[in-house]
Design brief:
Peroxisomal Thiolase, Chain A, domain 1, 2 domains, 5-stranded mixed sheet, 4-stranded mixed sheet, 10 helices, binds oxa(dethia)-CoA
Length: 325
């Protein structure tokens, strides 16, 4: 049976590191609060030229290099993002141009922090239908451009970066084993970002504060733990495997307390759970592919390993992908 198989991974992080100590100078917060409530110690913030599409293209270049492939072999580029430097065309089209991936069609997925899992699920389905297709799947964000730097509730949480993988047809068991995706638009107001103010006066709202992230953190936290635990259960059931069978879990990196609560519910030991939230904060759609590339390059994944990716974000959206390395 053909499955979407990861042929190479890559990541790209901006140079500049923003520490909790620096944030103490900007808003009424403390390193102690940020560290104990979120686990975040520092994050990367994009500087000149480090746009979302550039970070995405650089991560993709590294994934292509690992796969031993050229950009011209890519037939589809999917970018999970909510923070491209332009609203139209898609970030994927900018990546296609920067890489010279002339044969690829290209589009973005807006599933917030679930952008990568949604995109990987989609790539898997494309590849099953067309086994010759090679897909670049990317999660890339510069949420620093969408952050209200005077709002301590959100500005300490997010960071910038990109992660990518090349997906092609795999046989012999390696690849996406099962995936489950969900959304509940009834809860959109728990976590959202306004668009630019409307140029149509009939649609303009004076209460639009601008395109900043707004979040009811405590409610989102509650939903995150419950929904991710549920969807992991669904995907394990679908594949007929148990949590004990997992070699590695790569959860969305939003808050160390969410990750620990999820690991507790699944009964997973700490060494089976990838954590880098202390280094990069919440990079939204980029968090899982960045962690996946780190795990891959660190040799934490062996052929045959079962790897579980699970995410949660605005929408609300949530999902899990079970993958055999
Ligand atoms: O990636 C998409 C998914 N996003 C998430 O999963 C985020 C989920 N939510 C969270 O991670 C947590 O809810 C937060 C980290 C956002 C907040 O942590 P919390 O433990 O839920 O804190 P809280 O919102 O209940 O706030 C507790 C207190 C409040 O003060 P009072 O009202 O108790 O006096 C806040 O004003 O902490 C205060 N607070 C801060 N204090 C210092 C909020 N932000 C800060 C801050 N520094 N940066």
């Amino acid at each position: 049976m053909v499955r979407g198989m990861i042929l190479g991974t890559g990541r790209c992080l901006p140079q500049r590191v923003l520490t909790n100590a620096e944030l103490e100078q900007r808003v009424d917060t403390s390193d102690e609060w940020i560290t104990t409530r979120t686990g975040i110690r520092r994050r990367r913030i994009a500087g000149p030229g480090e746009t979302t599409s550039h970070l995405a293209a650089e991560a993709a270049r590294r994934a292509l290099e690992m796969a031993g492939m050229s950009a011209e072999e890519i037939g589809l580029i999917v970018v999970g993002t909510i923070s491209c430097e332009i609203a139209m065309p898609s970030c994927a089209c900018l990546v296609q141009r920067e890489l010279g991936a002339r044969r690829a069609f290209a589009f973005d997925i807006n599933a917030a922090c679930c952008g990568f899992t949604y995109s990987l699920d989609l790539a898997d389905r494309y590849v099953r239908a067309d086994p010759d297709l090679k897909v670049l799947v990317i999660g890339a964000e510069t949420l620093s451009s969408r952050t209200n730097w005077e709002d301590r509730n959100t500005c300490v949480l997010f960071g910038d970066g990109a992660g990518a993988c090349v997906v092609g047809a795999g046989e012999g068991g390696a690849g996406v084993v099962a995936s489950r995706l969900h959304a509940d638009g009834e809860l959109w107001q728990l976590l959202y970002m306004e668009a630019a103010p409307s140029m149509n006066p009939e649609l303009a709202r004076p209460d639009n504060p601008g395109p900043f992230i707004q979040m009811a953190g405590r409610d989102v936290f509650r939903h995150a733990v419950r929904s991710m635990a549920e969807v992991v259960g669904e995907v394990l059931d679908a594949a007929g495997v148990a949590a004990d069978d997992l070699a590695l879990v790569i959860p969305h990196q939003a808050n160390i307390r969410i990750i620990h609560a999820l690991a507790d519910r699944l009964g997973l030991p700490a060494d089976k759970v990838c954590v880098n939230v202390h280094e990069y904060g919440n990079t939204s759609a980029a968090s899982v592919p960045i962690a996946l590339d780190e795990a891959n390059r660190a040799g934490r994944l062996a052929p045959g390993d079962l790897v579980l990716l699970c995410t949660f974000g605005a929408g609300l959206t949530w999902g899990a992908v079970l993958y055999r390395w």
